[in-house]
Amino acid sequence: MTKAWLAELGRLALILLAAAILGGIAGQLVWMLLAGLLFALCFHLYQLYRVHHWILHVEDRGNPPDAMGVWGELVDSLYRFGKRHRKRKERLASLLERFNEFTSAMPDATVVIGPNNEIRWLNEAATDLFGLRNPQDIGQRLSNLIRHPDFISYLAGGDYHEPIEITSPVRDDVRLSLRIVPFGNHERLLAARDISHLYRLEQMRRDFVANVSHELRTPLTVLMGYLETFEDMEDEFPSPLKRSLSHMQGQATRMQGIIEDLLMLSRLDGEGPMASEQSAVAIPGLVSALREDAEALSGTAGHRISAEIDEMLWLRGDAKELHSAFANLVSNAVRYTPMGGEIALRWVRDGAGASFEVRDTGIGIDPEHIPRLTERFYRVNKDRSRDTGGTGLGLAIVKHVLQRHGAKLVIRSRPGEGSAFVCLFPSARVVHKVRESHIA
Ligand code: ADP
Questions:
Q1: How much distance in Å is there from the Cα of 364 to the middle of ligand 1?
Q2: Is 341 near ligand 1, meaning CB less than 6 Å away?
Q3: What is the architecture of the domain spanning 106-194?
Q4: Which end of the chain is more exposed for a tag (fewer CB within 10 A), N or C?
Q5: What gap in Å lies between CA 228 and CA 73, rounded to an integer?
Q6: Angstrom distance (rounded) from CA 24 to CA 435
Q7: Domain 280-432 has CATH 3.30.565.40
Q8: Which PANTHER family does the entry link to (predicted)?
Q9: Which residue's CA is the closest to the ligand 1 atom numbered 13?
Q10: Is 327 in the pocket of ligand 1 (CB under 6 A)?
Q11: What is the pLDDT of residue 51?
Q12: Mean pLDDT throughout 57-67?
Protein backbone atom coordinates (compact mmCIF):
# COMPACT_ATOMS: atom_id res chain seq x y z
CA MET A 1 0.00 0.00 0.00
CA THR A 2 1.42 3.40 -0.97
CA LYS A 3 1.81 6.38 1.36
CA ALA A 4 -1.05 8.21 -0.38
CA TRP A 5 -3.41 5.33 0.35
CA LEU A 6 -2.37 5.26 4.01
CA ALA A 7 -2.92 9.03 4.25
CA GLU A 8 -6.31 8.64 2.50
CA LEU A 9 -7.41 5.95 4.94
CA GLY A 10 -6.10 8.06 7.88
CA ARG A 11 -8.11 11.04 6.58
CA LEU A 12 -11.30 8.92 6.45
CA ALA A 13 -10.63 7.60 9.92
CA LEU A 14 -10.16 11.19 11.24
CA ILE A 15 -13.45 12.33 9.65
CA LEU A 16 -15.30 9.39 11.17
CA LEU A 17 -13.60 9.98 14.56
CA ALA A 18 -14.57 13.66 14.52
CA ALA A 19 -18.13 12.72 13.53
CA ALA A 20 -18.30 10.13 16.33
CA ILE A 21 -17.08 12.67 18.96
CA LEU A 22 -19.50 15.35 17.75
CA GLY A 23 -22.29 12.73 17.56
CA GLY A 24 -21.48 11.56 21.09
CA ILE A 25 -21.62 15.13 22.43
CA ALA A 26 -24.85 15.90 20.54
CA GLY A 27 -26.39 12.48 21.29
CA GLN A 28 -26.77 11.86 17.49
CA LEU A 29 -23.95 9.35 16.87
CA VAL A 30 -25.50 7.52 13.87
CA TRP A 31 -26.54 10.70 12.09
CA MET A 32 -23.21 12.34 12.62
CA LEU A 33 -21.36 9.24 11.35
CA LEU A 34 -23.64 9.23 8.26
CA ALA A 35 -22.94 12.96 7.78
CA GLY A 36 -19.19 12.26 8.02
CA LEU A 37 -19.44 9.48 5.38
CA LEU A 38 -21.52 11.79 3.15
CA PHE A 39 -18.87 14.46 3.45
CA ALA A 40 -16.14 11.96 2.48
CA LEU A 41 -18.23 10.75 -0.49
CA CYS A 42 -18.86 14.31 -1.71
CA PHE A 43 -15.17 15.09 -1.43
CA HIS A 44 -14.26 12.04 -3.57
CA LEU A 45 -17.05 12.73 -6.09
CA TYR A 46 -15.76 16.26 -6.51
CA GLN A 47 -12.21 15.02 -7.03
CA LEU A 48 -13.50 12.45 -9.55
CA TYR A 49 -15.40 15.15 -11.42
CA ARG A 50 -12.26 17.31 -11.73
CA VAL A 51 -10.12 14.44 -12.92
CA HIS A 52 -12.80 13.32 -15.37
CA HIS A 53 -13.18 16.83 -16.74
CA TRP A 54 -9.43 17.11 -17.12
CA ILE A 55 -9.21 13.78 -18.99
CA LEU A 56 -12.12 14.68 -21.30
CA HIS A 57 -10.36 17.86 -22.36
CA VAL A 58 -7.06 16.09 -22.55
CA GLU A 59 -5.96 17.71 -25.83
CA ASP A 60 -6.14 21.29 -24.57
CA ARG A 61 -5.37 20.57 -20.96
CA GLY A 62 -2.46 22.39 -19.42
CA ASN A 63 -1.20 21.38 -16.03
CA PRO A 64 -3.14 18.74 -14.12
CA PRO A 65 -5.65 19.96 -11.47
CA ASP A 66 -4.50 20.15 -7.85
CA ALA A 67 -5.92 17.06 -6.26
CA MET A 68 -5.50 15.61 -2.84
CA GLY A 69 -4.31 12.21 -1.68
CA VAL A 70 -4.73 9.24 -3.99
CA TRP A 71 -6.39 11.50 -6.55
CA GLY A 72 -3.27 13.65 -6.70
CA GLU A 73 -1.10 10.60 -7.29
CA LEU A 74 -3.50 9.28 -9.96
CA VAL A 75 -3.53 12.63 -11.76
CA ASP A 76 0.29 12.85 -11.67
CA SER A 77 0.62 9.35 -13.13
CA LEU A 78 -1.89 10.12 -15.88
CA TYR A 79 -0.11 13.37 -16.64
CA ARG A 80 3.32 11.68 -16.94
CA PHE A 81 1.86 8.85 -19.05
CA GLY A 82 0.17 11.35 -21.38
CA LYS A 83 3.39 13.33 -21.76
CA ARG A 84 5.35 10.17 -22.64
CA HIS A 85 2.64 9.11 -25.09
CA ARG A 86 2.66 12.54 -26.77
CA LYS A 87 6.42 12.43 -27.19
CA ARG A 88 6.30 8.94 -28.70
CA LYS A 89 3.55 10.04 -31.08
CA GLU A 90 5.62 13.01 -32.20
CA ARG A 91 8.65 10.78 -32.73
CA LEU A 92 6.60 8.29 -34.80
CA ALA A 93 5.03 11.08 -36.84
CA SER A 94 8.44 12.52 -37.68
CA LEU A 95 9.73 9.02 -38.53
CA LEU A 96 6.73 8.46 -40.80
CA GLU A 97 7.31 11.80 -42.45
CA ARG A 98 10.95 10.93 -43.09
CA PHE A 99 9.95 7.50 -44.41
CA ASN A 100 7.50 9.13 -46.82
CA GLU A 101 10.17 11.58 -47.97
CA PHE A 102 12.61 8.72 -48.44
CA THR A 103 10.19 6.54 -50.46
CA SER A 104 9.19 9.53 -52.61
CA ALA A 105 12.83 10.23 -53.37
CA MET A 106 13.46 6.57 -54.26
CA PRO A 107 13.77 6.03 -58.02
CA ASP A 108 12.60 2.41 -57.68
CA ALA A 109 8.88 1.69 -57.74
CA THR A 110 7.65 -0.02 -54.58
CA VAL A 111 4.19 -1.50 -54.05
CA VAL A 112 2.97 -3.43 -51.00
CA ILE A 113 0.49 -6.15 -51.96
CA GLY A 114 -1.87 -8.06 -49.65
CA PRO A 115 -2.77 -11.79 -49.78
CA ASN A 116 -5.41 -11.24 -52.50
CA ASN A 117 -3.03 -9.19 -54.64
CA GLU A 118 -4.74 -5.99 -53.47
CA ILE A 119 -2.56 -2.88 -53.37
CA ARG A 120 -1.95 -1.65 -49.83
CA TRP A 121 0.66 1.01 -50.33
CA LEU A 122 2.70 2.48 -53.18
CA ASN A 123 5.32 5.18 -53.66
CA GLU A 124 5.60 7.96 -56.22
CA ALA A 125 7.87 5.99 -58.56
CA ALA A 126 5.14 3.33 -58.84
CA THR A 127 2.89 6.02 -60.31
CA ASP A 128 5.60 7.03 -62.74
CA LEU A 129 6.68 3.52 -63.84
CA PHE A 130 3.40 1.54 -63.56
CA GLY A 131 0.80 4.32 -63.89
CA LEU A 132 -0.71 3.37 -60.51
CA ARG A 133 -2.62 6.17 -58.78
CA ASN A 134 -2.42 7.00 -55.12
CA PRO A 135 -4.87 6.80 -53.32
CA GLN A 136 -7.43 5.81 -56.03
CA ASP A 137 -5.81 2.42 -56.71
CA ILE A 138 -5.29 1.43 -53.09
CA GLY A 139 -7.37 -1.72 -52.49
CA GLN A 140 -7.50 -2.58 -56.23
CA ARG A 141 -6.06 -5.90 -57.42
CA LEU A 142 -2.61 -5.35 -58.90
CA SER A 143 -3.22 -8.01 -61.58
CA ASN A 144 -6.12 -5.88 -62.90
CA LEU A 145 -3.86 -2.87 -63.30
CA ILE A 146 -0.61 -4.43 -64.57
CA ARG A 147 -1.83 -6.85 -67.21
CA HIS A 148 1.47 -7.99 -68.75
CA PRO A 149 1.17 -11.84 -69.15
CA ASP A 150 4.72 -12.45 -67.83
CA PHE A 151 3.96 -10.37 -64.75
CA ILE A 152 0.59 -12.09 -64.16
CA SER A 153 2.19 -15.56 -64.26
CA TYR A 154 5.13 -14.38 -62.09
CA LEU A 155 2.73 -12.98 -59.49
CA ALA A 156 0.56 -16.12 -59.53
CA GLY A 157 3.49 -18.57 -59.73
CA GLY A 158 4.79 -17.86 -56.23
CA ASP A 159 8.43 -18.52 -57.16
CA TYR A 160 10.08 -15.17 -56.62
CA HIS A 161 13.74 -16.23 -56.54
CA GLU A 162 14.59 -14.63 -59.87
CA PRO A 163 13.52 -11.17 -61.05
CA ILE A 164 11.64 -10.78 -64.36
CA GLU A 165 11.85 -8.10 -67.03
CA ILE A 166 8.90 -6.40 -68.66
CA THR A 167 8.27 -3.18 -70.57
CA SER A 168 6.59 -0.47 -68.47
CA PRO A 169 2.80 -0.56 -69.01
CA VAL A 170 2.74 3.23 -69.39
CA ARG A 171 6.08 3.99 -71.10
CA ASP A 172 7.16 1.89 -74.08
CA ASP A 173 10.74 3.15 -73.85
CA VAL A 174 11.20 1.96 -70.25
CA ARG A 175 12.33 -1.57 -69.45
CA LEU A 176 11.72 -2.72 -65.88
CA SER A 177 13.30 -5.41 -63.75
CA LEU A 178 10.70 -6.62 -61.22
CA ARG A 179 11.16 -8.57 -58.06
CA ILE A 180 8.63 -9.68 -55.46
CA VAL A 181 9.73 -10.18 -51.84
CA PRO A 182 7.31 -11.87 -49.40
CA PHE A 183 7.26 -10.37 -45.90
CA GLY A 184 5.14 -10.02 -42.76
CA ASN A 185 1.71 -11.55 -42.62
CA HIS A 186 1.13 -12.87 -46.18
CA GLU A 187 2.19 -9.54 -47.61
CA ARG A 188 4.54 -9.03 -50.56
CA LEU A 189 6.68 -6.15 -51.68
CA LEU A 190 6.94 -5.51 -55.40
CA ALA A 191 10.11 -3.62 -56.29
CA ALA A 192 10.73 -2.43 -59.84
CA ARG A 193 13.89 -0.84 -61.24
CA ASP A 194 14.31 1.05 -64.49
CA ILE A 195 16.94 -0.92 -66.44
CA SER A 196 16.35 0.70 -69.84
CA HIS A 197 19.95 1.81 -70.03
CA LEU A 198 21.33 -1.69 -69.40
CA TYR A 199 18.73 -3.20 -71.69
CA ARG A 200 19.71 -0.88 -74.54
CA LEU A 201 23.39 -1.72 -74.02
CA GLU A 202 22.58 -5.44 -74.02
CA GLN A 203 20.46 -4.99 -77.15
CA MET A 204 23.35 -3.14 -78.82
CA ARG A 205 25.74 -5.94 -77.90
CA ARG A 206 23.36 -8.58 -79.26
CA ASP A 207 22.74 -6.62 -82.48
CA PHE A 208 26.47 -6.10 -82.90
CA VAL A 209 27.25 -9.83 -82.55
CA ALA A 210 24.35 -10.77 -84.83
CA ASN A 211 25.37 -8.20 -87.46
CA VAL A 212 29.05 -9.14 -87.37
CA SER A 213 28.20 -12.84 -87.68
CA HIS A 214 25.82 -12.11 -90.51
CA GLU A 215 28.33 -9.90 -92.35
CA LEU A 216 31.06 -12.51 -91.99
CA ARG A 217 28.91 -15.29 -93.36
CA THR A 218 28.85 -14.07 -97.00
CA PRO A 219 32.62 -13.50 -97.49
CA LEU A 220 33.31 -16.80 -95.74
CA THR A 221 30.93 -18.65 -98.06
CA VAL A 222 32.80 -17.12 -101.04
CA LEU A 223 36.17 -18.16 -99.58
CA MET A 224 34.90 -21.68 -98.95
CA GLY A 225 33.63 -21.84 -102.52
CA TYR A 226 37.13 -21.01 -103.80
CA LEU A 227 38.69 -23.54 -101.42
CA GLU A 228 36.36 -26.24 -102.78
CA THR A 229 37.35 -25.31 -106.35
CA PHE A 230 41.02 -25.58 -105.37
CA GLU A 231 40.29 -28.95 -103.78
CA ASP A 232 39.06 -30.21 -107.14
CA MET A 233 42.40 -29.13 -108.69
CA GLU A 234 44.40 -30.54 -105.76
CA ASP A 235 46.33 -33.05 -107.86
CA GLU A 236 48.05 -30.21 -109.72
CA PHE A 237 49.41 -28.65 -106.49
CA PRO A 238 52.73 -29.48 -104.84
CA SER A 239 52.42 -31.32 -101.45
CA PRO A 240 53.17 -28.33 -99.12
CA LEU A 241 50.41 -26.36 -100.85
CA LYS A 242 48.06 -29.36 -100.52
CA ARG A 243 48.69 -29.41 -96.76
CA SER A 244 48.03 -25.68 -96.51
CA LEU A 245 44.85 -26.10 -98.51
CA SER A 246 43.51 -28.77 -96.17
CA HIS A 247 44.49 -26.63 -93.17
CA MET A 248 42.70 -23.63 -94.67
CA GLN A 249 39.61 -25.75 -95.23
CA GLY A 250 39.67 -26.99 -91.64
CA GLN A 251 39.92 -23.43 -90.28
CA ALA A 252 37.23 -22.10 -92.63
CA THR A 253 34.87 -24.88 -91.55
CA ARG A 254 35.56 -24.08 -87.90
CA MET A 255 34.88 -20.39 -88.54
CA GLN A 256 31.63 -21.31 -90.24
CA GLY A 257 30.69 -23.38 -87.18
CA ILE A 258 31.39 -20.43 -84.86
CA ILE A 259 29.35 -18.07 -87.03
CA GLU A 260 26.42 -20.49 -87.21
CA ASP A 261 26.52 -20.96 -83.40
CA LEU A 262 26.72 -17.19 -82.81
CA LEU A 263 23.75 -16.64 -85.11
CA MET A 264 21.83 -19.38 -83.28
CA LEU A 265 22.58 -17.70 -79.93
CA SER A 266 21.49 -14.28 -81.15
CA ARG A 267 18.32 -15.82 -82.60
CA LEU A 268 17.64 -17.35 -79.17
CA ASP A 269 18.38 -13.99 -77.50
CA GLY A 270 15.97 -12.23 -79.81
CA GLU A 271 13.06 -14.57 -79.05
CA GLY A 272 10.80 -14.18 -76.02
CA PRO A 273 11.93 -15.73 -72.73
CA MET A 274 9.94 -18.95 -73.25
CA ALA A 275 9.62 -21.24 -76.27
CA SER A 276 6.11 -21.68 -77.63
CA GLU A 277 4.06 -24.56 -76.20
CA GLN A 278 1.86 -24.74 -79.30
CA SER A 279 3.34 -27.79 -80.99
CA ALA A 280 4.43 -31.14 -79.57
CA VAL A 281 7.83 -32.33 -80.78
CA ALA A 282 8.41 -36.05 -81.47
CA ILE A 283 11.49 -36.45 -79.29
CA PRO A 284 11.69 -40.28 -79.71
CA GLY A 285 12.28 -39.88 -83.47
CA LEU A 286 14.69 -37.00 -82.83
CA VAL A 287 16.75 -39.07 -80.38
CA SER A 288 17.00 -42.10 -82.67
CA ALA A 289 18.09 -39.81 -85.53
CA LEU A 290 20.72 -38.33 -83.19
CA ARG A 291 21.94 -41.80 -82.38
CA GLU A 292 22.50 -42.45 -86.09
CA ASP A 293 24.25 -39.07 -86.43
CA ALA A 294 26.47 -40.02 -83.49
CA GLU A 295 27.45 -43.26 -85.23
CA ALA A 296 28.28 -41.36 -88.40
CA LEU A 297 30.28 -38.78 -86.40
CA SER A 298 32.11 -41.49 -84.50
CA GLY A 299 33.14 -43.06 -87.84
CA THR A 300 36.18 -45.22 -87.37
CA ALA A 301 36.52 -44.34 -83.65
CA GLY A 302 34.23 -47.32 -82.93
CA HIS A 303 32.22 -45.90 -80.05
CA ARG A 304 29.52 -48.21 -78.69
CA ILE A 305 26.39 -46.09 -78.85
CA SER A 306 23.07 -47.11 -77.27
CA ALA A 307 19.73 -45.37 -76.85
CA GLU A 308 16.89 -45.97 -74.42
CA ILE A 309 13.83 -44.23 -75.68
CA ASP A 310 10.39 -43.93 -74.13
CA GLU A 311 8.25 -43.79 -77.25
CA MET A 312 5.30 -42.29 -75.39
CA LEU A 313 7.13 -39.11 -74.42
CA TRP A 314 6.85 -36.01 -76.56
CA LEU A 315 7.64 -32.43 -75.61
CA ARG A 316 5.91 -29.12 -76.15
CA GLY A 317 8.44 -26.69 -77.56
CA ASP A 318 10.53 -25.68 -80.52
CA ALA A 319 11.75 -28.66 -82.60
CA LYS A 320 14.70 -26.83 -84.14
CA GLU A 321 15.98 -25.55 -80.81
CA LEU A 322 15.59 -28.92 -79.07
CA HIS A 323 17.38 -30.66 -81.93
CA SER A 324 20.24 -28.17 -81.73
CA ALA A 325 20.61 -28.58 -77.94
CA PHE A 326 20.47 -32.38 -77.95
CA ALA A 327 22.77 -32.59 -80.99
CA ASN A 328 25.36 -30.46 -79.18
CA LEU A 329 25.35 -32.82 -76.19
CA VAL A 330 25.63 -35.89 -78.42
CA SER A 331 28.43 -34.40 -80.54
CA ASN A 332 30.31 -33.43 -77.33
CA ALA A 333 30.03 -37.00 -76.05
CA VAL A 334 31.50 -38.33 -79.29
CA ARG A 335 34.23 -35.70 -79.41
CA TYR A 336 35.34 -36.05 -75.79
CA THR A 337 35.23 -39.86 -75.62
CA PRO A 338 38.31 -41.77 -76.78
CA MET A 339 38.08 -44.58 -79.34
CA GLY A 340 36.00 -47.58 -78.32
CA GLY A 341 34.27 -45.73 -75.45
CA GLU A 342 30.59 -46.02 -74.60
CA ILE A 343 27.92 -43.43 -75.21
CA ALA A 344 24.38 -43.90 -73.90
CA LEU A 345 21.40 -41.73 -74.83
CA ARG A 346 18.29 -41.88 -72.62
CA TRP A 347 14.94 -40.25 -73.19
CA VAL A 348 12.78 -41.31 -70.25
CA ARG A 349 10.23 -40.14 -67.69
CA ASP A 350 11.54 -38.38 -64.61
CA GLY A 351 8.78 -38.22 -62.00
CA ALA A 352 6.03 -36.20 -63.64
CA GLY A 353 8.55 -34.66 -66.05
CA ALA A 354 10.98 -36.10 -68.57
CA SER A 355 14.75 -36.28 -68.91
CA PHE A 356 17.16 -36.50 -71.80
CA GLU A 357 20.52 -37.84 -70.74
CA VAL A 358 23.78 -38.27 -72.64
CA ARG A 359 26.29 -40.40 -70.74
CA ASP A 360 29.79 -41.18 -71.93
CA THR A 361 32.88 -42.95 -70.66
CA GLY A 362 35.08 -40.15 -71.99
CA ILE A 363 37.78 -37.89 -70.58
CA GLY A 364 35.49 -36.38 -67.94
CA ILE A 365 35.70 -32.87 -66.45
CA ASP A 366 37.35 -31.55 -63.29
CA PRO A 367 34.66 -30.39 -60.79
CA GLU A 368 36.09 -26.85 -60.71
CA HIS A 369 35.16 -26.35 -64.40
CA ILE A 370 31.62 -27.67 -64.24
CA PRO A 371 29.87 -24.47 -63.03
CA ARG A 372 31.43 -22.48 -65.89
CA LEU A 373 30.94 -24.89 -68.80
CA THR A 374 27.82 -23.14 -70.12
CA GLU A 375 29.56 -19.76 -70.43
CA ARG A 376 30.18 -18.62 -73.97
CA PHE A 377 33.62 -19.70 -75.25
CA TYR A 378 34.51 -21.45 -71.99
CA ARG A 379 36.57 -24.54 -72.69
CA VAL A 380 38.43 -26.83 -70.32
CA ASN A 381 41.10 -27.51 -72.88
CA LYS A 382 41.19 -25.04 -75.77
CA ASP A 383 43.40 -27.18 -78.00
CA ARG A 384 41.32 -30.30 -77.61
CA SER A 385 38.12 -28.36 -78.28
CA ARG A 386 39.64 -26.87 -81.45
CA ASP A 387 41.11 -30.14 -82.66
CA THR A 388 37.72 -31.83 -82.42
CA GLY A 389 35.98 -28.98 -84.25
CA GLY A 390 34.45 -27.34 -81.15
CA THR A 391 33.28 -23.74 -81.12
CA GLY A 392 33.06 -23.25 -77.36
CA LEU A 393 29.42 -22.23 -77.78
CA GLY A 394 27.69 -25.63 -77.72
CA LEU A 395 26.78 -25.77 -74.04
CA ALA A 396 25.82 -22.06 -74.02
CA ILE A 397 23.25 -22.94 -76.70
CA VAL A 398 22.10 -25.97 -74.67
CA LYS A 399 21.60 -23.85 -71.56
CA HIS A 400 19.71 -21.16 -73.45
CA VAL A 401 17.40 -23.65 -75.19
CA LEU A 402 16.69 -25.46 -71.92
CA GLN A 403 15.91 -22.17 -70.16
CA ARG A 404 13.41 -21.37 -72.89
CA HIS A 405 11.72 -24.73 -72.22
CA GLY A 406 11.64 -24.32 -68.44
CA ALA A 407 14.21 -27.15 -68.17
CA LYS A 408 17.39 -27.58 -66.13
CA LEU A 409 20.80 -28.91 -67.13
CA VAL A 410 22.54 -31.18 -64.62
CA ILE A 411 26.18 -32.10 -65.26
CA ARG A 412 27.83 -35.00 -63.48
CA SER A 413 31.40 -35.86 -64.35
CA ARG A 414 34.67 -37.29 -63.08
CA PRO A 415 37.99 -36.82 -64.80
CA GLY A 416 39.02 -40.01 -66.56
CA GLU A 417 35.71 -41.76 -65.87
CA GLY A 418 33.21 -39.97 -68.09
CA SER A 419 30.36 -37.49 -67.93
CA ALA A 420 26.59 -37.35 -67.85
CA PHE A 421 24.67 -34.36 -69.16
CA VAL A 422 21.02 -34.51 -68.06
CA CYS A 423 18.26 -32.20 -69.30
CA LEU A 424 15.29 -32.20 -66.91
CA PHE A 425 12.00 -31.04 -68.42
CA PRO A 426 9.02 -29.97 -66.26
CA SER A 427 5.72 -31.90 -66.44
CA ALA A 428 4.00 -28.88 -68.02
CA ARG A 429 6.03 -29.47 -71.21
CA VAL A 430 5.57 -33.25 -71.39
CA VAL A 431 3.04 -34.89 -73.72
CA HIS A 432 2.25 -38.63 -73.30
CA LYS A 433 1.57 -40.34 -76.61
CA VAL A 434 1.93 -44.13 -76.61
CA ARG A 435 2.61 -46.75 -73.95
CA GLU A 436 5.64 -48.83 -74.81
CA SER A 437 9.32 -48.05 -74.45
CA HIS A 438 12.14 -50.01 -75.95
CA ILE A 439 15.86 -50.39 -75.45
CA ALA A 440 17.86 -50.33 -78.64
P1 ADP B 1 33.17 -27.03 -77.34
O2 ADP B 1 32.73 -26.60 -78.67
O3 ADP B 1 34.52 -26.56 -76.94
O4 ADP B 1 32.94 -28.49 -77.13
P5 ADP B 1 30.98 -26.69 -75.52
O6 ADP B 1 30.31 -25.45 -75.04
O7 ADP B 1 30.16 -27.70 -76.22
O8 ADP B 1 32.21 -26.22 -76.38
O9 ADP B 1 31.65 -27.38 -74.26
C10 ADP B 1 32.42 -26.60 -73.37
C11 ADP B 1 33.52 -27.42 -72.77
O12 ADP B 1 32.96 -28.42 -71.94
C13 ADP B 1 34.34 -28.17 -73.80
O14 ADP B 1 35.38 -27.38 -74.28
C15 ADP B 1 34.84 -29.36 -73.00
O16 ADP B 1 36.02 -29.03 -72.33
C17 ADP B 1 33.75 -29.60 -71.97
N18 ADP B 1 32.86 -30.72 -72.35
C19 ADP B 1 31.66 -30.65 -72.92
N20 ADP B 1 31.11 -31.86 -73.09
C21 ADP B 1 32.00 -32.75 -72.58
C22 ADP B 1 32.03 -34.18 -72.43
N23 ADP B 1 31.02 -34.93 -72.84
N24 ADP B 1 33.11 -34.72 -71.86
C25 ADP B 1 34.14 -33.96 -71.43
N26 ADP B 1 34.17 -32.60 -71.53
C27 ADP B 1 33.13 -32.02 -72.11
A1: 9
A2: no
A3: 2-Layer Sandwich (3.30)
A4: N
A5: 109
A6: 114
A7: no
A8: PHOSPHATE REGULON SENSOR PROTEIN PHOR
A9: 379
A10: no
A11: 86
A12: 69
